[in-house]
Amino acid sequence: MMKQNNSFREISDKLLAAGSVLIYPHVNMDGDALGSAVALCRALRDLGKASYILIEDEIPRNLLFMDRGYCTHDQNILEDVDVSLCLDCGDLSRFLKRKDKFLAGKSSICIDHHRTTVPFCDYNYVDPEVAATGQLIYYLLKEMECCTDFRMDGEIADAIFAAITTDTGNFQYSNTTRQCHEIAAELYDLGVDVRRVSQEIYESVRQERILLHSAAVAAMERFAGGKAAMAVVTQDMLKQTGAGMDETEGIVDKLRSIEGVEIAVLVKEDTEKLKLSLRAKSWGNVAVIAEEFGGGGHTKAAGCSLKLPLEEGIPLIRQAVERSLQLYHE
Amino acid sequence: MMKQNNSFREISDKLLAAGSVLIYPHVNMDGDALGSAVALCRALRDLGKASYILIEDEIPRNLLFMDRGYCTHDQNILEDVDVSLCLDCGDLSRFLKRKDKFLAGKSSICIDHHRTTVPFCDYNYVDPEVAATGQLIYYLLKEMECCTDFRMDGEIADAIFAAITTDTGNFQYSNTTRQCHEIAAELYDLGVDVRRVSQEIYESVRQERILLHSAAVAAMERFAGGKAAMAVVTQDMLKQTGAGMDETEGIVDKLRSIEGVEIAVLVKEDTEKLKLSLRAKSWGNVAVIAEEFGGGGHTKAAGCSLKLPLEEGIPLIRQAVERSLQLYHE
User: Fold this and answer.
1) What number of other Cβ atoms are within 10 A of residue B1's Cβ?
2) Smallest Cα distance from B220 to chain A, Å
3) Does the structure show a pLDDT above 90 at A195?
4) CA torsion angle A185 A187 A193 A196 (round to 10)
5) pLDDT at B114 exceeding the cut of 90
6) Phi, psi of A284 (to 5 degrees)
7) What is the DSSP letter of B128?
8) What integer pLDDT is reported at residue B206 of this predicted model?
9) What is the pLDDT of residue A277?
10) What is the mean pLDDT of the segment spanning A97-118?
């Protein structure tokens, strides 16, 4: 059942032949999911298509600047959709509330860079070697420029920069490649406003968020001989700080930045389950930990959920991290 | 007296003709100063020159990885030096203790990107349009490759990446250009190990430091209608977290990044006085606050001291910040 990737030309042709396209970024959208979606939606509209980004949760506050009327929660906004296109996710479970609408599209496309993605659409472009889906969207839009009057502009450049800079940790993660910088260089020619994107994403931080990060870090735990660091965000901490669970991004990276820490774990106490964000620094592998709990991701960044209360989940997580640190070592 | 820039060819020729070169980065060296110096020193040694980086203060902990026997405090390490070359600084006051040695060189070269630099050497390349001196060193080494067997390698690539990424705030500051990304892309061909550089520079943070930052931020105070944020680092907090007062850098920037905060203040409880770090975000002026207490600085970043205990100093600081916010407003 495994399908080969289609070419950008084939995907471009399919999109150019469509009248309507609904774009599906994954739940808990990040800069790459939304940036990719915005760049593509804007391009499709420029090309005269009816296009929206269909979402099922809220846009993170620091990414709101990208949504200039592209995102909607309204599943009826377009009927008889020609193309359902999922971005930065290759699994129906990452857009569960929109699944039926997605499958109702006359045809489907998946563009993604996750290693665990199994191609399941009519057209697929899945490349785990690229750092960000935004990179693939850039190549797709270049392809579209070849045979149409469409041209990328500053707004699209901002969205693609947002996608690449967030998913590469500002060009610091090991997933960063020559191509990321080549694209960034070309975005300057398109008028990217790096300062604005960066200020929006990183420098308008809610005090509640900063207080939550401080509280989580202050209560962190080191284990596995110091090689692992784990922090927990509980519902109580959200109440005390006034922050939302969508404001936990960055905590796990702070844990990883500690000298001697190889694997960092953030455990979020959701209403019915624990959600985990996992990071490895250099030689560790967190994909195996995530997979153990039915999740997935990359070796250096992965995620999963556990349907367990905190007191039962934490020891299991600790054990899984320790196992991974034994399996993959320096 | 103002001299025009020399060409990289002229500077390259001068260096290729030299037998010995001493390189002078500025005091309080940063990633750009040291990264540029290491890249150049390594290249000169490859070319058979006697070359060292002469320093007068300590290498910051997170930059130590770059020094593989290049840096020395020993002013007698080379005698009758052919070329004195200052990097990332264009002012003798930034290498005051090494000034006499610098001036004793048979000829002098300055390579810098500071707007305030007045060319004062025999050969100068000063370009305030580039984001980092490391960029200029890259161009110079390319020039050297043209007429010699010398070739840049992974170690040089790492040093140049360190220079560019630190001075551009990881490609987020407004000084970042297309050329920064073009060079970064080319560094991949040379085998740059971005992950290692980034880990060394940013991800070897002492846990004590992170705990201190969390404690200080968690206890911060907002006042002046939310326009001001103030955090205090007490001697007690240092004891509790195990951190040193030299590990407070970054706290005041975190306060400033909070939505709505225009002026951020960090108060450090030193043994006999209070030391203040002040930051303004966009329209505020902290220089006037610092001057009020006998300190100084720029409108957006300033500092001062108060010979008062905390309980007496804090109300005075609060008042001074409020006065400044009344005087300078949006």
Assistant:
1) 5
2) 9
3) no
4) -90
5) no
6) -75, 165
7) T
8) 92
9) 97
10) 93
CATH code that applies to domain A207-327: 3.10.310.30
Mean of pLDDT values over A57-61: 92
- Across the interface, do A258 and B205 touch by the CB < 8 Å criterion? yes
Give the fold, CATH level 3, of A8-202: inorganic pyrophosphatase (n-terminal core) (3.90.1640)
Percentage of chain A with pLDDT > 70? 99
Q: Which two tokens mark A79?
A: 């009927």
Q: Is B5 on the interface with A (CB under 8 A)?
A: no
Helix (H) or strand (E) holding A136: helix A133-146
| Token duo for residue B160 | 């140049």
Exposed (0-12), middle (13-18) or buried (19+): which is A59, by Cβ within 10 Å?
A: middle
- In this complex, is the C-beta atom of B319 within 8 Å of any C-beta atom belonging to chain A? no
Which residues 221-240 of B have a C-beta within 8 angstroms of A?
222, 229
Residue B1 has pLDDT above 50, yes or no: no
Q: What is the mean pLDDT of chain B?
A: 94
Confidence band (pLDDT; 50, 70, 90) for B3? low
String of b and e for B182-202 (b: at least 16 CB within 10 Å)? Answer: bbbbbbbebebbbbebbbbbb
* CB count in 10 Å sphere of residue A104: 14
Q: Which residue of B has its CA nearest to A259?
A: B204
What is chain B's alpha carbon radius of gyration, rounded to the nearest angstrom?
22
Residue B291 has pLDDT above 60, yes or no: yes
Q: What percent of chain B has pLDDT over 90?
A: 83
Which residues in chain B touch residue A218, judged by CB atoms under 8 angstroms apart?
211, 214-215, 218
pLDDT range class, residue A61, cuts 50, 70, 90 = confident
Non-local CB neighbours of B25 within 8 Å, separated by 6+ positions = B33, B34, B36, B37, B53, B55, B86, B87, B88, B89, B95
Summarised one tens digit per residue, pLDDT across range B175-222 is 899 999 999 999 999 999 999 999 999 988 999 999 999 999 999 999
In the CATH scheme, what architecture does the domain B208-327 have?
A: Roll (3.10)
Residue with tokens 């990424």: B165
B236 min Cα distance to partner chain A (Å): 16
Q: Which residue has the tokens 């960044």?
A: A301
- A17 or A147: which leads in pLDDT: A17
- Would you list the domain boundaries of chain B? 8-202, 208-327
CB pairs under 8 A between A and B: 118
Instruction: Quote the CA–CA distance of B277 and B231 in Å, as a whole number.
Output: 10
Q: Encoding tokens for residue A111?
A: 């563009």
Task: Place A3 in a pLDDT band, splitting at 50, 70 and 90.
Answer: low
**Residue B116 forms contact with A (CB below 8 Å):** no
The angle that helices B178-189 and B133-146 make with each other, rounded to 10 degrees, is 50
Pairing of strands B20-25, B83-87: parallel
Of A172, A176, A259, the CB nearest to B204: A259
Question: Does the beta-carbon distance from B172 to A189 stay under 8 Å?
Answer: no
Taken in order B85, B87, B90, B93, the sign of the CA dihedral is negative
What whole-number distance in Å separates Cα of residue A111 and Cα of residue A134? Answer: 10
Contacts of B13 (CB under 8 A, 6+ apart): none
Average pLDDT over chain A, rounded to an integer = 95
- Look up the ipTM and state it: 0.85
Burial class (CB in 10 A: 0-12, 13-18, 19+), B253: middle
Find the closest chain A residue to B180 by CA distance: A185
